[in-house]
């Protein structure tokens, strides 16, 4: 990023030249996913460009998803997202799915507590008047890439200690004989609101998938009511269809 890389007389507007230079550095691997970019002031000094020009160039790369800005910590090269194909006909957990792919699982907890249920939780879980709900909210990531926000609600009678769930909810349920064996899942389209988009490291307004899962124990009792937001740029959901009778 030396000053002589940018020319007033050819190559288009200076911010476009900077955009191109950074995009090339990402494409060639000179800048790798997760690398941080020097602060605006430093970048301006390195390139001899004005701070306004640097800001415009960086903003354009953020808009196209090649850079991500994290409030308070700077600008980074965005993780490369490879689309994942997810079978819809199997009742698996996020951890199981990722391990099967040989990928690392990380969860960032947003909350994990027992509390009085909201009306939709009472209905979905079939709770009684004084029943409490265990609520687990987390951002699920794989190999450092945030993929989904999951908000799971369970009867507190089944999970009185949500803080015990470290990695896999289903593993904790299985160890207690409460592994769900059947689930109904609904998928709909959603544009990600600013707050959710930030948690997922994408631009506000991009396409997401809202997934609602209600899971059952062999007895027919509802064990889980989970509302998730999955990144639309990261998932392909696939299901095998059979000829209708
Ligand atoms: C999946 C399920 C979610 C379940 C979670 C458990 C969808 C849309 N969601 O992500 O309902 O709570 O797995 O994962 O498929 P865990 O065992 O890794 O915590």
Automatic annotation (TrEMBL):
Keyword line: DNA-binding, Transcription, Transcription regulation
Keyword Methyltransferase: no
Entry GO MF terms: DNA binding; DNA-binding transcription factor activity
Keyword ATP-binding attached: no
Signal peptide: none
PROSITE patterns in alphabetical order: HTH_GNTR
Domain HTH gntR-type: 12-80
Residue ranges of the TM segments: none
Gene Ontology biological-process annotations: negative regulation of DNA-templated transcription
Domain of life: Bacteria
Protein name: GntR family transcriptional regulator
Organism, as annotated: Paracoccus isoporae
Lineage, broadest ranks: Bacteria, Pseudomonadati, Pseudomonadota, Alphaproteobacteria, Rhodobacterales
